[in-house]
């Protein structure tokens, strides 16, 4: 890898579905080596790779199916990682930048507690907004919004569902994040329930489109799905489903998210 990156380790994330593709070398760079121009150049190359990939073309078609029914004005991206140092985060950044461009979405905002000055500088160079407050995923939205949560802690997804837990608001969420189906398959309910109660409750009412992981590197977009909550599939507005739910209360041992 050029740009002063050095190989440090290999990804441990599983990717059962596409063994024929290579894992990307997970590379890191010290924050002292950060060079804005080089980073922008590398992002341009990544953008080209993505724009010319079948993976991206298909993902955009799938997203269009969901977006076309609503007018999306905002993207909020949580947990992308250190884009100033991490090649996986840079690929994930370019995918959402392509989505923003393609669907002419006005605003995009980022938050990750690991961001430092370099990450902010890089996002600023694209005029992307950096949020300052750690809301642990508790964003309440009043208009259709894409939440991009690439390999984000499941408690963040759960907090987001909890914060918009009513018939009127849930349909505003479009979540690009780890597949609900895969999460349910991979984790027994007794472990999942304390950390992802709302995810479990809504999963059978969710429209989930799996993004086929055919990109040349297999561990960047693995397990991604587009989740939406069309009104016609949701429980009735007057149902207890919307009221009889316990507030999230995670045990510290299982906590993957960084608390505020
Ligand atoms: C498993 S890493 C995923 C990083 C990268 N997107 C990837 O796929 O390799 C989870 C990310 O969630 C971030 N995170 C943890 N707590 C968070 C919070 N409260 N709000 C936003 N992001 C958070 C972490 O800092 C980390 O970057």
UniProtKB/TrEMBL annotation:
Note the InterPro entries from the entry: SRR1-like (IPR012942), SRR1L (IPR040044)
Out of the domains of life, which is the source?
Eukaryota
Cellular component annotations (GO), alphabetically ordered: cytoplasm; nucleus
Entry-linked Pfam families:
SRR1 (PF07985)
Describe the location of the SRR1-like domain by residue ranges: 63-227
> What family classification does the UniProt entry report for this protein?
Belongs to the SRR1 family.
Task: Provide the protein name.
Answer: SRR1-like domain-containing protein
């Amino acid at each position: 890898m050029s740009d002063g990156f050095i190989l440090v380790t290999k990804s441990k994330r599983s990717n059962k579905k596409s063994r024929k593709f290579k894992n990307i070398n997970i590379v890191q760079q010290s924050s002292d080596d950060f060079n804005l121009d080089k980073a922008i150049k590398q992002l341009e190359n990544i953008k080209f790779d993505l724009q010319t990939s079948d993976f991206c073309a298909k993902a955009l078609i799938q997203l269009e199916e969901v977006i076309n029914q609503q007018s999306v004005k905002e993207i909020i991206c949580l947990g992308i990682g250190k884009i100033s140092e991490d090649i996986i985060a840079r690929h994930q950044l370019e995918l959402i930048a392509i989505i923003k461009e393609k669907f002419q979405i006005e605003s995009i905002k980022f938050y990750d507690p690991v961001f430092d000055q370099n990450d902010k500088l890089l996002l600023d160079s694209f005029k992307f907004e950096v949020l300052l407050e750690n809301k642990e995923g508790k964003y309440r939205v009043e208009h259709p919004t894409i939440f991009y949560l690439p390999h984000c802690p499941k408690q963040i997804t759960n907090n987001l569902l909890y914060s918009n837990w009513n018939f009127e608001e849930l349909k505003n969420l479009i979540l690009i994040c780890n597949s609900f189906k895969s999460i349910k398959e991979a984790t027994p309910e007794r472990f999942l329930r304390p950390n992802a109660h709302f995810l479990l409750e809504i999963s059978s009412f969710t429209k989930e489109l799996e993004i086929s992981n055919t990109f040349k590197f297999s561990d960047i977009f693995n397990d991604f799905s587009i989740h939406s909550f069309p009104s016609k599939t949701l429980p009735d507005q007057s149902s207890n489903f919307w009221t009889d739910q316990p507030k999230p209360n995670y045990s510290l041992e299982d906590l993957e998210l960084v608390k505020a």
